[in-house]
Design a protein that fits this description.
The complex is a heterodimer.
Chain A: H1 13-16, H2 27-31, H3 43-46, H4 50-65
Chain B: E1 2-10, H1 16-32, E2 36-52, E3 55-67, H2 69-81, E4 85-93, H3 96-114, H4 121-132
The chains are: A mainly alpha, B alpha+beta.
C-alpha cells in the first residue's frame, strides 16, 4: 500500500499523449511502465488504460529480446544510474 | 504482401566497409525473396542492455518493407546462418493503427534521407555514435 501512494492521480499517460502505437525501439516511452528494477508495472499502479497496457507489455517484451531494455538488473554490480549511457 | 519491420543487431567489431557489406547483404536477401524495402533506419552502435555472445555493444539496423508471407521464414533462416548477426527481430504490422505507424515511420525516414541536413533530433544523436565505431 505504501507503494501505491507514489502515484497520486491515476490516468493513462499514453492516452494523454495520444499514442497510437508503442514502438519497442523507443525505450523512453516504455520507461514510464517499468519499475526501477525494470519489471513491468501493473496497471493499478501506473494508471494505464487496458488498451495501452497491452501495447506497452508487448513492446517491452520485444525490447527485452533485442537488448534495448534489460531482462534483469544485476544486483551484484550496483551502479548509481545503471542505464545512463544507453542512448535514447 | 504484408508490412513488416526487421531489426538486426550486428557485431560491434566490424569495420565500416564490413558493416556496409553486411547491410547490403541483408538488403539483397530481402529483395531476392520478393520484399520491397520502403525505408532503412540506422540506429548506430549502442550499448546492449545485457551481454550477447560476450559483446557489450551492437550495431542496430532496421528495415521497413513489404513482403509475401513465405519470404519471412527464408530470410530468417539466412540471418540465423550469418555469424555477424547476433540478434534479430521481425515484426508484422496488421491492423489499421499499426499500419499507420508503419507508413508514418517510412515517411519520416524517407524525408530524412532526402534532406540529410534536416535538424531532426534523432539523427543528431546518432551521428557521433556511428563515426566512433
Amino acid at each position: 500500500m505504501a507503494e501505491k501512494r507514489k502515484f497520486a492521480r491515476k490516468y493513462c499517460k499514453y492516452c494523454e499523449a495520444k499514442v497510437e502505437y508503442v514502438d519497442y525501439k523507443d525505450a523512453k516511452i516504455l520507461r514510464h511502465s517499468l519499475s526501477e528494477r525494470y519489471k513491468i508495472m501493473p496497471r493499478r499502479l501506473t494508471g494505464n488504460c487496458k488498451r495501452h497496457q497491452e501495447m506497452v507489455e508487448l513492446a517491452i517484451k520485444r525490447a527485452r529480446a533485442t537488448a534495448i531494455i534489460p531482462y534483469v538488473i544485476d544486483t551484484k554490480k550496483v551502479v548509481a544510474v545503471p542505464f545512463e549511457q544507453l542512448q535514447q | 504482401m504484408r508490412h513488416y519491420e526487421l531489426l538486426v543487431v550486428l557485431k560491434p567489431t566490424l569495420s565500416v566497409e564490413e558493416l556496409q557489406a553486411k547491410q547490403t547483404f541483408l538488403k539483397e536477401i530481402l529483395e531476392k525473396n520478393g520484399a520491397v524495402i520502403a525505408a532503412k533506419l540506422e540506429m548506430g552502435t549502442r550499448k546492449l542492455a545485457y551481454q550477447i555472445d560476450k559483446f557489450e555493444r551492437g550495431t542496430y539496423t532496421v528495415f521497413y518493407f513489404t513482403a509475401p508471407t513465405a519470404a519471412i521464414a527464408e530470410v530468417e533462416r539466412l540471418i540465423r546462418i550469418t555469424e555477424e548477426c547476433i540478434r534479430f527481430m521481425t515484426v508484422k504490422f496488421e491492423n489499421q493503427k499499426e499500419l499507420g505507424f508503419w507508413t508514418k515511420q517510412v515517411e519520416k525516414l524517407t524525408k530524412k534521407s532526402d534532406v540529410s541536413a534536416a535538424p531532426v533530433k534523432e539523427i543528431v544523436e546518432e551521428q557521433p555514435v556511428t563515426t566512433e565505431a
